[in-house]
Amino acid sequence: MEKIWVLLIAILIFLIFAFLFWRLIGVDAKKEYGTKMWKHWPTRLSFWQALILYSAGFTIITMFLLKWGNVLTF
């Protein structure tokens, strides 16, 4: 049961970081590329790949910081 809670916390942290990345960087990315270029799938694909990779990285770092601080045990 304990591992399920750790997994749920990790998913929640991932979603929070993904939402923050999308809200903070997404608007600027649309402005930088322009609406015509933003409609092409390679441009949007690279944005979503970056969102997933950065969110996963920050989630891993956060989980290990929580483990180091004895907040979570896994």
Write structural notes for this entry.
The protein is mainly alpha-helical and 74 residues long. It contains two helices and no strands. The protein has helices at 2-38, 41-68. Helix 1 (2-38) packs antiparallel against helix 2. The longest helix is centred in the N-terminal third of the chain and has 37 residues, at 2-38. The protein is elongated, with a radius of gyration of 16 Å.
Counting DSSP H or I runs of 4 or more residues, the number of helices is 2
Total number of β-strand segments? 0
Shape descriptor reads: elongated
Helix content: over 70%
Content of β-strand: under 5%
**pLDDT average, as an integer?**
91
Poorly predicted runs of 5 or more residues = none
Structural class: mainly alpha
Radius of gyration: 16 Å
The major sheet is characterized as: none
Number of self-contained structural domains: 1
Summarize the helix and strand pattern as letters: HH
How many angstroms does the end-to-end distance come to? 12 Å
